[in-house]
Each structure stands twice: as C-alpha cells, then as structure tokens.
Write a structure and sequence with these properties.
This protein is α+β, with helices and mostly antiparallel strands and about 240 residues long. It has 6 helices and 6 strands. Strand 1 and strand 2 form a beta hairpin.
Amino acid sequence: MANKDKYRSFLHDEPDNIQWRHGGPPTYDDVNKLYEQGRTKEWPEGSLEETVQNAIKSWEMELSHKTRLQDFKTINPHKFKFFVNGREGLSAEETLRLGSYNALLGSSLPEELKPYKADKETFESSHETFKSAFPRGFAWEVIKVYTGPPEIAFKFRHWGFFEGPFKGHVPTGNMVQFYGLGTLKVDDSLKVEEVEIYYDPAELLGGLLSGKHANYPIEDDSTKVSEDSQCPFSK
C-alpha cells in the first residue's frame, strides 16, 4: 500500500465504493516534493495554518479525483458555493462539472481577447492542458491565516515550473506563480459551505504565454538577410 499522504489525511482511508475519476486514489509524490522544495512557510503540526492548508489540499484532491459529490468529505454539498473574483457563485455540482481550472479561469473578456477560453474547455481538457504545462505539478501553500472558523480568511501562493507546452507555447522552464486571498465558511463539523477566492489570472496566464508560440518562425543564421536589404519599416 502506498505511504500515507502527509497533506491529505484521509486519502488512503477511503472505502472501496468511492468512485475515482481514474480508477483509484491519486498519488501526489511529485507535487509534494515540489511543495517541500519551494514552500516559503513550514507550519507547526496542528496549527491553524497547517489545518487550513491541508483542508484545502484535501478539497482540491476530491474535486479533481472524485466523480460523485456523495463521496466528498470536505464540503457540505447542499450548501456549497464557489466564488471567484466576485463572479456569481458556482454550486457544488457546477464546480465538479467544470473542474478547478475552468472555475478559476472563467472570464467576461470578449472571446477574441481571452488567452484561455474556459467556456470551451471540459474538465478533462483543462486538466490535461495544465498537467502538460506543469509536469511536476502545481504546488499550493498557505502564506497567512487572518481569522479562524467559522469564517476563515487566508492568503495563499500557487506555483509550478513551465516545463511542458501550453496551448502551442513552448515551455520556458521558468517558475510561474501567483498569490491570492481567500475565505472559507465552514459549518459546525468544519465542512466547507462557501469558498471565495480573489487573485489576478494574468499572473498565471502571463507566465504561460511568455513562451514563444510553436507556430512562430524561429530565426537562424540561414534565414537572416542583411540589414541593408530589410524593409525600413521592420527596423
């Protein structure tokens, strides 16, 4: 049996009748290593900060890998709402259908200006897109907790290394990261009823779009022309 995940306490204590998206419980070895190498905070065991951090990692695990809300342990599915950057809240069913990336990257920009078209992506395509871009995973940490339950306010950091292609953009190998603020409203059993997140999507997408697009010509010595022969408007 795999070692217990230190950050998702019940991952390997699940009953056999859980319906997993990929046939069985996931492993987080790569992203846990990335997290431990790159974290800026190491919270004491049992602290409020560690509790909040692990609760959100567990919720993300369920959202990404379970297919039935009845199998979720981290939320109250009947009351759950997910709010991002002040947009209309998503129900538990809507969040599970869209997936975390599409929920986070919804946009009211005109279609032609959207660098990532969340409304055109499925749960599966969105996860494949970001798994491709971040092959070692996309780590997450709590930076600060401002208030405790029942309404928890916190600051977080999300980061990974752009080491695989993203929407035709070649990887740069650079770190891509963003910071944000969030709140969790929990019930008496500490199950989440509301999640509200505020962050700048440009911090994420800007790093991924910085790689040269694979369709752009790459200049080499064999294709260069002398400056004298160039169009004057190209200088």
